[in-house]
Fold this protein.
Amino acid sequence: VTDAVKAAFDSQETVRFECEEGISNRLAVSAIPEAEPVLLHVRDVSESVRLARELKKTQQTVETLDDGIYILDETFVITAVNDAVTDITGYSREELVGAHASKLAGDETLSMATEILEQLRAEESDVGLIESSIKRADGELIPIETRFSNVEFANGDRRRVGLVRDVRERRRNERLLRTLNRSARTLLRAESERAVCE
């Protein structure tokens, strides 16, 4: 503090810095030169620092997920996506943020999502689920599962937050299991060695 006061007095310019007070308090200090005296403006920023750390942890968690996370505004404009969404869709973040959700989903899917969101509001439920397909940048349609909900942020904005999961592998496994199940039933019904070979 003494150094900041001296620097403000010598330069006649405001000097700002942050410092720790005790174990968990963080203070923002401004040394403001006013003729002879130097005024100190001290503000507790502990809560802001804590919230910033929590936000950073949350962002790191969201970016490490294999599933895509997106946020839409009330008009279905994409306002945020994580890296997994760009991997799944083949679009860059810059191409997606600010674009309408119809860039990825068909009218039928968006209409279904709107109906489910209205039901969620009416029933005061939390999460909706849609199985549909998404159009990648290269034109390929891939099957996805989307879980989404209406979320009200601290500033009063209502957004649609969703999680997108690429279910191609799961669908392949389901087909394989059905085929193996059919084959096993046929094999169990075989009454002769010839039938088993066939």
Strands lie at 15-21, 25-33, 38-44, 68-72, 78-81, 128-135, 141-152, 158-166. The longest helix spans residues 168-189. The mean pLDDT is 81.
